[in-house]
Design goal:
This protein is an alpha/beta fold. The chain is built from six helices and five strands; from the N terminus they run E-H-E-H-E-H-E-H-E-H-H. It binds adenosine-5'-diphosphate.
């Protein structure tokens, strides 16, 4: 069985993430989405809430697992015996960071290969950071996130939690 992990902050999960995941399922039998608490980004949702939303999005899909990890992804891979990591590439701007991260990860854990999936044509401009910004200033993010994520964010905003 070919297994892979798909790590990211998923804050929140977007249709761009879902596209990468669904297309990767034609290559891998089982993919675990690993929700990491990113130190680089200001967060919108707490990691546990992101995990819960990702689980809801993929409910009933037995080939998709969801997990949370707060440390180095390469340590997660070692602990779980994973040998493949999926990452998405949108623009040239993603490339430099991803390229360096893949190189560093290879040094941290030589047993793991990074697989890059090119973004879907309709998703190249969608990033969680952009969605967060849009949401914070009252923009309509509904085309870019799954309906249940949109619903949850609206509820939280109404309750004054965001
Ligand atoms: P983001 O980079 O959107 O703030 P993540 O850290 O959650 O969010 O991203 C996890 C992975 O998914 C990264 O490899 C990222 O490049 C990829 N990804 C995110 N959005 C897209 C998209 N629209 N198309 C392709 N890959 C994407």
């Amino acid at each position: 069985m070919k297994r892979a992990i798909y790590p990211g902050s998923f804050d929140p999960i977007t249709v761009g993430h879902i596209d990468i995941l669904e297309r990767s399922l034609s290559v891998f039998d089982e993919i675990t989405i690993v929700v990491a608490s990113s130190s680089r980004k200001t967060s919108l949702l707490q990691p546990d809430e992101r995990v819960e939303l990702v689980k809801d999005v993929f409910k009933g899909k037995r080939r998709v697992k969801v997990d949370r990890w707060d440390g180095l992804i390469m340590d997660y891979a070692r602990e779980r015996g994973s040998h493949a990591v999926i990452r998405g590439l949108r623009a040239a701007s993603d490339f430099e960071y991803e390229f360096m991260m893949a190189a560093m990860n290879k040094r941290l854990n030589p047993d793991v290969e990074t697989f890059f999936m090119m973004t879907g044509q309709n998703y190249f401009f969608i990033s969680s950071s952009m969605i967060k910004e849009l949401f914070r200033y009252g923009g309509d993010i509904s085309p870019y996130v799954p309906p249940l994520v949109w619903k949850r964010l609206k509820e939280k905003r109404k309750a004054g939690d965001l």
